[in-house]
Amino acid sequence: MNSLNFAALAASAIALTFAAPALATPGLGGDVYGSSVEEGEVEVEAIYGALGGGEDDGEDVLKLEAAYGVTDKLKIGVLTELEKEPGESRKAEEVAVEAIYELGSAGGIGFALYGEYAIGLNGNSDKLEAKLLMQHKFGPFDLRLNLIGEKALEGGEKLELSYAASADVEALGEIRLGLQAYGDLGTFSRFAPRAEHFVGPVAKAEIEGLGPEIEIEAGYLFALGAAKDDTDGQFRLKLEIEF
Question: Whole-angstrom Cα distance, residue 112 to residue 133?
Answer without folding.
Answer: 5
